[in-house]
Hints:
Keywords: Membrane, Transcription, Transcription regulation, Transmembrane, Transmembrane helix. It comes from Streptomyces corchorusii (Streptomyces chibaensis). This is RNA polymerase subunit sigma. There is one protein chain. This protein is an alpha+beta fold. The chain has 3 domains: 58 residues, Arc Repressor Mutant, subunit A (Orthogonal Bundle); 36 residues; 107 residues, Sandwich (Immunoglobulin-like). It contains 8 helices and 10 strands. The strands form 3 sheets. It has a 4-stranded antiparallel beta sheet. A 4-stranded antiparallel beta sheet has the order 7-6-9-10, with no helix packed on it. It starts with 7 loop residues before the first helix and ends with a strand.
Amino acid sequence: MPSEHETVGAYALGILDDAEATAFEAHLAGCEWCAQQLDELAGMEPMLAALADLPGSGSTPAIGESLSAKPSPRLVEKLVDEVAEKRAQKRRRSFYMIAAAAALIIAGPLAAVAVNGGSDGGGQVTATPAQATFRTMSDKKSATDASTHVSATVAVARKDWGTQAVLELKNVKGPLKCSLVLVAKNGQRVTMSSWSVPDWGYGIPDAKTEQSKQPLYIGGAAAFQPNEIDHFEVVTFEGKKLVQVDA
């Protein structure tokens, strides 16, 4: 890395002499990397200045005196590296969250059973992309809750950004608002998708209409890898767990 790049931390802290500052500013005019680093480090100098104004107390040396001393070049370099790494980690986390959100948006149109006709459950059922995707996914886990009798199968696929999932839900009646929740091994909970269950329900074996007999297929996504997942839960918006599927 050119030596001018290593000066950005010292410039941000205001410890360059006039000649050094002038030379760095000339370099800064044509260096996008240094401009970005300077923007990220811009808050450090005012923070140190504010701390330097604090008075000392008792026999303890004045805080202002210790903070106003110019740090060594090695310390400045270490500060820059630490801030840059923290920023990079934040950007990586943001990328994974954006990727998962994008996948969820893409999965949205795959979510529910498509119906031609009215909203009373009597329409003609047509296959959906979510159902087709579900059939192609080989990693599937199923469970039926002994109390609610709701059945669920969760199909998952590993992605670079996390996990894609498609839920098949059966024997659930509405009206309900529900979510598919991923529970990670570290205890974190992530909502992968949410939907409404109409009065006539989904996957009801003895239903009077074909629509009500069909399961619900809905897609979702999360930033966790499959090996980081403990289980999935289908829960109502009121917090009632309808069924749990172990990963």
